[in-house]
Records
---
Amino acid sequence: MSSVHFTETEDKLAVIDVLYRFAAGIDLRDGALLGSTFTEDAISDFRPAAAKAGFEYPVLQGRETIVSALSDSLQHFDTTHSVTNPRVCIDGDKATLEAIVEAQHVPRDDHSRHYLMKNRYDVELIRHDEAWLIQRATIDNVWRDGDPTVLTGV
């Protein structure tokens, strides 16, 4: 339990900020920033979005595993992630966040190719001390555009 009490608006903004930090951590290739968004035992499930894009991606469990896997799988890309339409529901020290995240992937050595994904994020967070952290994130794809082989490295 947190000893600091925030207003509902402050909590909602803090929850949304976690997803902004997540996106910035990926785009800036900043493992520490990315890692600061997850609980130690967090789960990241990209399977729904990956299946629609035509490839398999495992469920990732644990902060270090998630940061390492995302850093490794995206190391050959320039990416931009844009977060929109966040909806937050707070229940004590737990929160849910629904948002749309647009993710543009461009091979670092060939900017003439791209793969753009518009994804729906369903995120469960917990309050840890004075911060909100992602406990589970499930990512599903709404639509996509471009060359799907960009993501598979073909």
---
Amino acid sequence: MQTKRHFLKTVSMATMLLAAPEICTAQDTPWSDIGFDRLLVANTDGDSLAVRFRNGQRYDASNLQRLNWLWRDWRDADAQSPIDPLLFVDLALIQTRMSLDFGQPKAILINSGFRTARRNATIPNAARNSQHVAGRACDFNIVGVSPPLVVGYAESYGIHGLGRYADFTHIDVGPSGRRWTG
């Protein structure tokens, strides 16, 4: 399943690159921290990062580790787990498109990334098989943008798991087609 998902993401990105090359390369954005291969992101523990996680078709292992640290469960002894890089790809698509449409860089604020099973069990209404526990999800805000608008952008990219909440948006790279309101 992971191989098929990776193949589909690669085909989607290749199609997008061929269809609109002027917006799909990082150097075409007017800001060095925004692009389809990088993220401008912070977490609610006060850590922030501007990082290029992919170089062409290769992921940068060192920068993925930096993102894994940012996604850690700082509420549970800084526990961390590898995060599925496809999550970063989805976030970069949303962030870059919104930044270009708004005409200014839009930072991502992660409310919840990786969660330990122990902490996940303490969250009211959290799914027992949460994609957060698998390192495949995040709850986030785009600074200065309402969650309903963020959901619209996420929907336009066919995000696999999409949760609509009053004060944040959830996305994940789990099974495709899941939608809910919390």
---
Amino acid sequence: MTSLTVNNQPIRYRLSPDTPLLWALRDASNLTGTKYGCGTGDCGACTVDIDGRARRSCQVPIGAIEGSVVTTIEGLSRDRSHPVQQAFLAANVSQCGYCIPGMVMAAAALLRHDADPSEATIRAGITNLCRCGIYPRLVEAIQRAARAQRGEETIPAAPLPAIEPADAARAVPALTPAIAQDDAR
């Protein structure tokens, strides 16, 4: 068994130590905000924070990070109050949205290590791919999040999620009797 702290919760995975962290998070922990993109570590859709560094979870076997602290998009801020999340929403960074969780995690890690990144630093540090081409808005959003973290700017609060986070993971309700009867025919 591999023991990790995931989103501030101790977790013991009963999976092969060779299992990529991506699949442990998605399949065993039901943390589906971390996306599968390429499986080769090139696209960054699966980026999470491992011990304070942005890492591509598809390339990290859980056995290699025994005892580590992992933060996923779900653990960054469930109410979207993190400055990076607020800046992404305020700048309308998302288009299809598939790459956004990985981008947010990479940006949050970058800002933890560089409180005032230049455009060149952001472009070099955020190597995640986006097929929709959000890069100009991405750079401005990260710089705005940095200003917010430094207390130089206030970003309007992001709207609350449309559903309660606890409801997002609840079980699918049982079939209604009418549907169950139709299925029995």
---
Amino acid sequence: MRGDRDNLIVRKAITFSLKIIRYTEVLEQNRKFVIAKQLLRSATSIGANVCEAQNAESKADFVHKMKIASKEASETLYWLILCERSDGYYFDVQIRNDADEIIRILSKIISTSKMA
């Protein structure tokens, strides 16, 4: 991962992953293990793929890795929606907003990269 400049999506993905780790710990304390595990995997995968894309071998490889990150972000949003709509589940609206923002940023990066 390149450390020579600030990268908005890398920074947001890492910050989001850290928030999700704390969030899923609360879910686990409430014995919501299945959702917590699924959410932790998909959400932290966003950052892993974004970081991997920073060292892509080509523009096509970069776009591919960002598309994977986008798919993981969409899956994460799905798990968050389930938490929001299920009785007895802790929900944090800011995490949902962060997921929405990451999806928008990834979509913009993908569409801009395809045109360039």
